[in-house]
Amino acid sequence: MPLQPGSTIGIVGGGQLGRMLALAAARFGYRIAVLDPDSGCPASQVANTTVVGPYDDEACLKRLASLSDVVTYEFENVAVAPLRRALGETPLSPPAEALEVSQDRVVEKAFLNGIGVATADWRAIDAVEELGHALLELGGDCILKTRRFGYDGKGQARINAQTTFTDAFEAIGSAPAILEKKVPFSFEMSVVAARGRGGEIAAFDPAENVHTLGILKTSTVPGKVTQELAASAMHVAAKILTHLNYVGVIGVEFFVGRDGALLVNEIAPRVHNSGHWTEAACLVSQFEQHIRAVAGLPLASPERHFDCVMENLIGDDVGRFSGLVTEPRSLLHLYGKAETRRGRKMGHVTRITPRSSGV
Ligand code: ADP
Ligand code: MG
């Protein structure tokens, strides 16, 4: 039975992704309960109820579950054990397995390789003494990343034969890590795709992504993405969704090699920053698509009506508000964050142009 209007969707995490999910849910008459440690978080400003507390607090998770007909999440670092215990009979979408796979870079790469999806070459690193041997095996330039809790390029260090290993390991907090071969990619792209309760899959067109200092700066559709690349990437995304018995929206990040080869960088079991453009260029946004999936409604067509460029407004960029709102063919979305900080995502703007024949 699909969720009826008036039902409540619980969201673990109250950042901008939770906020945009809540706005989409409201259009179907769903109520939203959010769990976040900050009572003034972006999602709380548009939610019906906010449970204020840590994401891994079982009592808080229980309270969220008791308020909700279905629970979802807006970030992948939710502690799985207390969440599972707290849920009781309340369904969780996407499934907990998607959290387990995506919140640990070693588990994630092993899962992807295990289902035949190519990634950068990698080695698990538990102690600094293992770095020398692993670097020798992988060869050349590598990137050391914490296994868990990394985002926006945080918890990463470049590393090569000239690097002092103890410095690099300390730079990432001496935490369990993964060493990845640096991919000499031609460009980065991502697919945001959804799987419904009945197993149907709908993928939005892939975006070409540009990162600055590890943070997404722009997503361009179609950008450099050819029809052939788009088809391969969507095939990979569908494979991942099916293997995880997934329900909801997923973001799959890719490196495109100079020879056109596709490697998956990482997966995010949630709506994804590189899919924000969908609210301006598609009939249905990634946020509504996720709400549809977790509510057990049919997925909507992901067709795209415009070409577009989504630009993240990071830190002081948000000060350009007065200019941005005067642009006639752009959609501006701000997140209601009280404090502007360097490197903090404050909003985004999507500029549309007529659709080219491309993808
Ligand atoms: P995060 O969780 O912070 O998004 P990512 O693993 O996606 O972490 O890394 C952030 C960015 O750093 C990537 O989008 C890419 O630009 C760069 N990067 C990460 N891993 C590699 C790699 N193995 N080779 C080349 N660039 C990489
Ligand atoms: Mg990433």
From TrEMBL:
Q: Where in this chain does the entry annotate a coiled-coil region?
A: none
Locate the residues binding ATP. 105, 145, 150-156, 180-183, 188, 211, 265-266
* The ATP-grasp domain, residue ranges: 109-295
- Give the superkingdom in one word: Bacteria
Entry-linked Gene3D superfamilies? 3.40.50.20, ATP-grasp fold, A domain (3.30.1490.20), ATP-grasp fold, B domain (3.30.470.20)
According to the record, the segments passing through the membrane are none
Q: Which InterPro entries match?
A: ATP-grasp (IPR011761), ATP-grasp_carboxylate-amine (IPR003135), ATP_grasp_subdomain_1 (IPR013815), PreATP-grasp_dom_sf (IPR016185), PurK (IPR005875), PurK_C (IPR040686), PurT/PurK_preATP-grasp (IPR054350), Rudment_hybrid_motif (IPR011054)
Q: How would you summarize the oligomeric state and partners of this protein?
A: Homodimer.
PANTHER family xref list = PHOSPHORIBOSYLAMINOIMIDAZOLE CARBOXYLASE, PURINE BIOSYNTHESIS PROTEIN 6/7, PUR6/7
- Protein's name in the database: N5-carboxyaminoimidazole ribonucleotide synthase
